[in-house]
Write a structure and sequence with these properties.
InterPro entries: AAA+_ATPase, ABC_transporter-like_ATP-bd, ABC_transporter-like_CS, ABC_transporter_ATP-binding, P-loop_NTPase. This protein is α/β, with parallel strands linked by helices. 32% of the residues lie in helices and 29% in strands. The chain folds into two domains: 221 residues, P-loop containing nucleotide triphosphate hydrolases (Rossmann fold); 84 residues, Alpha-Beta Plaits, CATH 3.30.70. A six-stranded mixed sheet has the order 6-7-8-3-9-10, with helices on both faces. It has a five-stranded antiparallel sheet with strand order 12-13-11-14-15, covered by helices on one side. Helix 3 packs across helix 4. The longest helix is centred in the middle third of the chain and has 16 residues. The chain is globular. The two termini are 36 Å apart. The protein binds adenosine-5'-triphosphate. Adenosine-5'-triphosphate (ATP) binds next to strand 2 and helix 1.
């Protein structure tokens, strides 16, 4: 949180939130504050409750217990006012391919009840905030995944909400697009927005978030600066973050998980991958299994050196990863 001596005001508050889906408790007493001028990364394994937390924060899911408020005003007191103060960016860009960037935003703006010169001004400002002004008239079908994701973010900015929520915004992005998206988020943070995003990647939280919160089985088990959470522990596991050429089918993911050794964890979100094991040797063997099973890695890095290497298509031997 650069540039501010005083603690920034809390924008979003989740207080002791519990969510159940039938018998299953998805969130169990989660309390979390997000301040204006900070980016908080919500981390945790598949099924730990990240998307559910965002849905509650966006006001699209009612918790069974606890409360959600923005700047001290509870959602239950005025749901419409709450909705105006929060912008949700879904994981999959919800855009019309045949329309231009500006036409997409105009369409969404009308859904929010905006019109006329106010709408035109807001569309221009939202495009500028994600650095897409010079692409305003271009058809979305020609956009890269990263540009679509930034346009998706612009749609959530039209009504200028103080709180921005992003569900796995980088899951389908290559490393360069991910950096551009984080540059947008950093500018929005510096303009005083409160940003809460979900990610599987502690390295991403380290690089782009002011604080990280870790969920495990519906409970918030740690929150702090990424550096605190990343401080090396004696029994640290070997971890590799990767970017896949294509999103693997669920059945393939299941088959691969079964072949990996005990103690090896594989998390896949979209095209992003996190692989961890007790030792570097086990990690190397697990990576060899993935490659032998046909998963194609475009790029990967290990958090210690934060060293990113791009793999050429012919790099399929495990030795390349060492
Ligand atoms: N609509 C639903 N009905 C029943 N159970 C659900 C539903 N949505 C989520 N769950 C369960 O609630 C728990 C939390 O799910 P959630 O999607 O919030 O986790 P997540 O951390 O976002 O996972 P992922 O990383 O896979 O997206 C999981 O056990 C999941 O199976």
């Amino acid at each position: 949180m650069p540039g501010f001596a005083m603690p920034l005001p809390v924008a979003l508050t989740l207080a002791d939130v519990t969510v159940r889906y039938g018998e299953r408790t998805a969130l169990d007493g989660v309390s979390l504050d997000v301040r204006r001028g900070e980016i908080v990364g919500l981390l945790g394994p598949n099924g730990s409750g990240k998307s559910t937390t965002l849905a509650v924060a966006a006001g699209v899911l009612d918790p069974a217990g606890g409360a959600v408020s923005i700047e001290g005003r509870a959602r239950t007191a005025d749901p419409a006012a709450f909705a105006r103060r929060v912008g949700l960016v879904p994981q999959e860009p919800a855009l019309y391919e045949e329309l231009s960037a500006a036409e997409n935003l105009t369409f969404f703006g009308r859904l929010y009840g905006l019109a006329g010169s106010d709408l035109r001004r807001r569309v221009a400002r939202a495009l500028a905030r994600v650095k897409l002004t010079d692409r305003a008239r271009q058809g979305v079908s020609t956009f890269s995944g990263g540009m679509k994701q930034r346009l998706n973010l612009a749609a959530a900015l039209l009504h200028d909400p103080p709180v921005l929520l992003l569900d796995e915004p980088t899951a389908a992005l290559d490393p360069a697009s991910r950096d551009s998206l984080f540059a947008d988020l950093t500018r929005l943070r510096d303009d005083g927005h409160a940003v809460l995003l979900t990610t599987h990647h502690l390295d991403e939280a380290e690089a782009g978030c002011d604080r990280a919160a870790i969920l495990e089985a519906g409970k918030l088990v740690a929150i702090g600066s990424p550096a605190e959470l990343l401080r090396p522990r004696p029994a640290e596991r070997a971890v590799l973050y990767g970017h896949l050429r294509a999103r693997p089918a669920k059945y393939l993911q299941r088959a691969i998980r079964q072949r990996l050794g005990a103690g090896v964890e594989l998390e896949i979100t979209g095209r992003r991958l996190r692989l961890s094991a007790g030792t570097g040797e086990q990690l190397g063997a697990a990576l060899a299994t993935l490659l032998a099973d046909g998963l194609e890695l475009e790029a990967y890095r290990t958090p210690a050196g934060a060293l990113e290497r791009r793999l050429r298509p012919e790099h399929t031997a495990a030795g390349d990863a060492a």
